[in-house]
Amino acid sequence: xxxxxxxxxxxxxxxxxxxxxxxxxxxxxxxxxxxxxxxxxxxxxxxxxxxxxxxxxxxxxxxxxxxxxxxxxxxxxxxxxxxxxxxxxxxxxxxxxxxxxxxxxxxxxxxxxxxxxxxxxxxxxxxxxxxxxxxxxxxxxxxxxxxxxxxxxxxxxxxxxxxxxxxxxxxxxxxxxxxxxxxxxxxxxxxxxxxxxxxxxxxxxxxxxxxxxxxxxxxxxxxxxxxxxxxxxxxxxxxxxxxxxxxxxxxxxxxxxxxxxxxxxxxxxxxxxxxxxxxxxxxxxxxxxxxxxxxxxxxxxxxxxxxxxxxxxxxxxxxxxxxxxxxxxxxxxxxxxxxxxxxxxxxxxxxxxxxxxxxxxxxxxxxxxxxxxxxxxxxxxxxxxxxxxxxxxxxxxxxxxxxxxxxxxxxxxxxxxxxxxxxxxxxxxxxxxxxxxxxxxxxxxxxxxxxxxxxxxxxxxxxxxxxxxxxxxxxxxxxxxxxxxxxxxxxxxxxxxxxxxxxxxxxxxxxxxxxxxxxxxxxxxxxxxxxxxxxxxxxxxxxxxxxxxxxxxxxxxxxxxxxxxxxxxxxxxxxxxxxxxxxxxxxxxxxxxxxxxxxxxxxxxxxxxxxxxxxxxxxxxxxxxxxxxxxxxxxxxxxxxxxxxxxxxxxxxxxxxxxxxxxxxxxxxxxxxxxxx
Length: 677
Known about the structure:
Helix content is 45%, strand content 12%. The chain is of the alpha/beta class and 677 residues long. Among the domains are: 66-133, Signal recognition particle alu RNA binding heterodimer, srp9/1 (2-Layer Sandwich), CATH 3.30.720; 177-355, P-loop containing nucleotide triphosphate hydrolases (Rossmann fold, 3-Layer(aba) Sandwich); 361-431, Orthogonal Bundle (Helicase, Ruva Protein, domain 3); 442-489 and 497-535 and 594-648, Methane Monooxygenase Hydroxylase, Chain G, domain 1, CATH 1.20.58. Helix 8 runs parallel beside helix 9, helix 11 packs across helix 13 (395-411) and helix 20 packs antiparallel against helix 21 (620-631). It starts with a strand and ends in a 46-residue tail after the last helix.
């Protein structure tokens, strides 16, 4: 916001909302304001100079033609008729006067002066006078110093008390930051993709800029807009774009800013926020992470949080009390819409909910272009290939991917970012940090190689698994080895066959160890956990069980709200036993299927293990070629079902002779056939 300047380089009145009104001291000859530390140092030096001046300045004006004598020399000169006058200070014993040769003298005598020596001076015709001089510096300076110290202490204590009082009185004021057209600079052009989301939000901005168009047709703008989506999808950036596009005041506040240790502070801050917005109407109020204060009332152990509920009640009242002509729109963002209070989401409050999902292929490409526009890229970099190879990544993940690629280019001393940098960055983001310094024994390396080869072989052989991308036995992140698959395209629903192939593929590591060593290790712990969770969801939530049938129950992995604490399931013990039996059946079927496939391709398993022990890392195409050669002919008709690198994304190698397919076993049940209408 522009600042009004009265005296250049001297004082400036600040109109920023976060600054205290008044004058700011500036450094002489500069436009920069004086820092508080420099101001305190300047005041301290000034006080010290003042005190020293009081002490030493009077001595500067004393006469320089004064001869200093010793006391005994003065008495000797007086007896020899060499002294004309003597002025004795009774307080200090200092004797000043004039000698017969016209020279002024000074000496320090005893205090008080001895009587016999005074008589000596008088008998020798010395004009003796007594003086009690008192200067301001000598008389009042000791008291003045203590007065100044006491006054400074009182001023400091008063300011501290005033600051504490102001803090206590302003604790109920809103902490919202107001933005104008100059900041932030983010606009809708900086937010790639999400055309539908930007259209709905820009409609709100357009209404606030020119409300007459909507009033003519009788259209009312939504009072509240709730942005819902996973973390990292750009909800806050969209709000910043609204602030950059809007020609109206924009207030930004986080949901946690309303909460304080004092009772009633949250409700007071809500009132202050909306009162400030009304004074500057039309305006936009953005509340980030609204779930921190908008959680369902009455939830939690021992009841609800009184302070949070009072804050929510005040916000509900402010939202419901809006006059449609006031021109105030509230935009909120959350990734937990299921915990919000129903009263907050009813029409008249947050009328419109806008879903900000993970970007698809058409949106990932412009997002990558936005984050890469200021970075030097090699001519061979194909961002479309990078977008195809990053399904499921959010906007924040893509920004991190581009940054990791730039860091990798710096590490290899390259002036530009190439495809190999994006490939390394994707592996770093998806598989974790490379831990090449971790030392494994030869037996551990061999077991890990068989384990990862089992995963990779099933990922390549099975029909519905995601294409094989890379295998490594170099520890990455928390894993000792990684087998990475990537989907060919964005997938929005999962077929049962795809889920079963995924279960079978994760069983590959455990089954390979069982076939080769005849025993098991702890390496399959994460695979078993993920398989169990997936199989349980297939039975409990997706109805993929003949015994359970078309019934679904929500996940009970955690106590989500307080109301679920005392009642975590809504089915009987018999049904619970049936669910456990079905989960066990699905997992055992897929384990048996993995044993069948790996037994059939035992030579491919051993060949892939030998290659891994030799090279430690294999791409998908190399692994597919090894498996095909060990099998004697290509397994897939349309080429290797692999994704080796971003540069070869979507390319399939030519197939050879008649393929040999490993058909999945016939499922234990089939979905019922619907009767013809």
